[in-house]
Queue: 2 jobs
Job 1
Amino acid sequence: MIPFNRFGLSGNELAYVQEALGRQTSGDGPFCRRAEALLEEIFGVPRVLVTTSCTHALEMSAILLEIGPGDEVIVPSFTFVSTVNAFVLRGATPVFADVRPDTLNLDERLLGALVTPKTKAIVPVHYAGVGCEMDEIGRVAAESGIAIVEDNAHGLLGSYRGRRLGTFGALATQSFHETKNIACGEGGALVVADARHAERAEILREKGTNRARFFRGQIDKYTWVDVGSSYVLSDVLAAILLGQLEARERIQARRRAIWERYAEALRAWAPAAGVSLPLVPPHCEQAFHMFYLLLPDLAQRTAFIAHLASRGVAAVFHYQPLHLSPMGVRFGGRAGACPVTESVSERLVRLPFHTTLSSEEQAKVIDAVTSFQA
Ligand SMILES: *Cc1c(COP(=O)(O)O)cnc(C)c1O
């Protein structure tokens, strides 16, 4: 079976892990700091903190923005649960926005009707690593004094009108989960573009203590100063992360080649089969996070996934509408509220996409796809 995802070594990961094991395995060590310095350079922001996951970086964002009961947060319904759950954990009410039918990103044209005096944050997700319409989202947020937190789990190294995804919000979050472009098993980062959040973010990450200042020699003992939790990434995982980050150009070049070959090979087949290919607007430099297809309906998607499986290819669907989940319904979600999300969640399929996908394997995937008869 050709797997949907497979971790690939791309550089110095193993040598760095060995170094970490002989020196420091707990968090906030030399590899964490080197990975952070490299991410700060990539994003051009004052501070990046590596974390145990993107989920935890989102939770830190909600605490930093002091979001609580009575506050509303606008989120796409078509996303991973953590985008929303991180804010619900603080007591906020999620307000689900539908997505655009072309990019599957939060539909900025709906924001005007969703913003209320209680709106505290908008959380755009750059689906598949293609930028949301940040000009309009930024305009609405600035006009109403609303914070932007980018869930940039898919968008590392992508950009929108020449500006890096992950630098539009006061805060942005990254994921280094095994399924992401740059991976260390489980891991994430909080990208702090607004330097006012940097010091408190360090405290939240260290169980509410000022331990980071202590280790920099800025204070002579550390103590409990705020709320917090254990969001620090182990230096062993940071060693893998640094190896991957240093190899980012090779990783991205390989992902680009795979993406472009799928697009080229399926260009003629797709319209004849009633299938849509991903759309990347000309002002978006995508991050090559995934290659998806939109089938005509749920029945055909089910048949398509089964057909691929019978040919030894693991293809998978993606997010289910959050507003229709048991938790979403508790917040007033109902069928028909986000029609694009409801439609694409039943029709989307992701093809195998990882740096270890060989040319022969990709040819086999393409053959399996184009031999599908609806
Ligand atoms: C993967 C993902 C997350 C969660 O990342 P973890 O690092 O596993 O917590 C959050 N949001 C989106 C959009 C994701 O794709």
Job 2
Amino acid sequence: MTRHPVEPFRIKAIEPIALLPRRDREHKLADAGCNLFNIRAEDVFIDLLTDSGTSAMSERQWGGLMRGDESYAGCRNFFHLEEVVRNLTGYQHVIPTHQGRAAEHLVFSLLLEKGDFVVSNTHFDTTRANVLYRGATPVDLPDPSCDDVAGEYPFKGDIDCARLETFLDEHPGRVKVCVLTITNNSVGGQPLSVANARTASAICRKHHVPLLFDAARFAENAWFVSQREESQRGRPVKEIARTIFDFGDGCLMSAKKDGLVNIGGFIAVKDPEFAARIKEALVIFEGFHTYGGLAGRDLEAVACGLEEVTNPDYLAYRAGQVEWLGNRLAEAGATIVRPVGGHAVFIDAGALYPQIPPGEFPGQTLAVALYREGGIRTVEIGSLMFGEIDPETHEPIYPPHELVRLAIPRRVYTESHLEYVARTFAAIFAKRESAGGFAIEYQSPFLRHFTARLRELPANTHARVART
Ligand SMILES: *Cc1c(COP(=O)(O)O)cnc(C)c1O
């Protein structure tokens, strides 16, 4: 049994959290229509909804906020960020944006037109939405190993290079960019190997398709490579990250993940002409190119965060903590996605509640139980989030797995917080056979999981519920 890694920091400022009494949690759930997005953060005890923008900043970052230079043009923090990003990625043209999706919007508005394609190992939700918004089609070509949720493959985040080659051959001139998401968020924070980046890059170059990295978790990706890829074993994380970036033409970054900040992002590219066009669009949508919609102090926090995130002690702790939680949950009876990814543990709620059909949202049953039992907030990634109605047959289509994601904010929770999460899960596991599902009372036409209201169904009924 692996030990929880010792946190490589000590705590200088604290933020109180409190567990509401059980009766109050019941009321909050009822008021929220059993949708955890409708619950106030202060009514949550342990918040594992997302790892995005939820990091704790270091003393250097907080100090950096005081060094913010709020000049409109040419603030010193931009030059610090530019130097750090050039050094990490090798891309000379660094353009700040207020977050990752703003970077996607800018780049895709320049690259894509109606009828174009974008290929990826897997598009993240906002990336997919920004491609669709341009009238283009996102095509996911994940490695086949990620179909096997429990299979211990080291690089489930890879792109399927055989399908990539075929797709580019069959659509000459129509694929405008290849986006490699590192780590591959949508398949569970799984890494992409250096070997895969090398092959994908050669295929893209042969077909004159630019290659961009969606680099939100580039450091976690490089850490897994240093642990799992024979040819890279033991190389410093910073060098591995640089090797990967060298295969591409640029990157899009949500700094809310491996930037270790609460807001921020950037674009970095090799081509000066493309950079000039991005800056022209940036000044309309985000701001002048030395601030990109961020305050000078925010740019400084991103620069410092990027300097800290490749620290091997930090990354060993980070990956070790997430894996430790995964193992504790598995010991308590959970079926989890293997290997444990870089930023979250995914529990298979379909396996936990075989009596609840997908149309009654077993993932939501677990997410609600974690809040009811322990004030823990997570997110359902299953039929509530991705279920659809077939436009022709009007039959429901369900995703292949009913998962619940426990995303771990960076540097925020300690071993005892996560131990509490595992203990809470054990109590839920003991009562799993008497759990029931949910029916939707209200839903919006798009992204319904954010706003849906749900009604709890009595336990152990198998009555089919018409989906409204
Ligand atoms: C979070 C994320 C984005 C979007 O970034 P925001 O900062 O939330 O706008 C894009 N890609 C990946 C892989 C992400 O995880």
